[in-house]
Amino acid sequence: MAGKSIHRQPVLKIEDPGIARKRMRRRAVSGQIIVGLLLVFLWEFLSRIGWLDSYYWSSPGTIVRTGWKAAAEGTLLQDLAYTSGATIAGFILGTVAGSLLGLSFWWSELYSRITEPYLIAFNAVPKLALAPVLVIMFGIGFDSKVILAFLMTVIVASIAAYSGVKNVDRDLEQMLRSLGAKRHQIFLKVVIPSSVPWMVSTLKINISLALAGTIVGEFISSRQGIGRMILYAGQILDIDLVWVGVVVLSFLSIFMYLGTVWLEHVLMKGRQPKS
After folding, report:
1. What is the C-alpha separation between 63 and 75, in angstroms, rounded?
2. CATH number for the 74-267 domain, one of 1.10.3720.10, 3.90.1300.10, 2.60.40.1730, 1.20.1250.20?
3. Is the whole-model pTM more than 0.85?
């Protein structure tokens, strides 16, 4: 009608949650990269103008040159492979063995009640304090580093798996038993799938614990490894090489963390809403 203005209601846009999550993920990654580059630039700049003592703090440029030299000589790559191998081996063994131990508690309530206090007590023991004993027992080679990484992860994995077992739907178990299902069928079809999220949740923690155990073992006594390289560089007062080791360990931990994120995505595929 003439003389009357028509007011239209604004149209609300409903964005797909999957698209929103992807956009947020891209923004977060971009922000992380920008912050990292700014920190490196600031570190280099403050070192050049003398606000940071380059003897103690080195500088990104010097660290890159020192690391390149160590890599060209072949020692850095060998040490990196040694530390990575011991960490991954201990992580896999500890996570698998711990998960199997935690899942085994489902089979007997008496067994689980007897074992649980000892599991908690061993978890409270500082495993790194046992490192000197382990090095003496198993030598200064690869095995002692793997065992230390194993001990750092096995209890965490077993407690997580046991927590999953305790949270299994008991009503579903009873229903399946009433329908004639065997115990091993309930274990395979209900207990393990229900416990997977609990076990997966420890992967990111366990990889960092395994790396810490390996490095401590290398600090105590080792012929190879990034930890040995850092210790040796400190003894000869080569601070630049110490920083090379620290930076390499930082990147190694990031790559291992991303590996556990990928593994978590694979294991949890189909259990979470698609993004």
Report:
1. 15
2. 1.10.3720.10
3. no
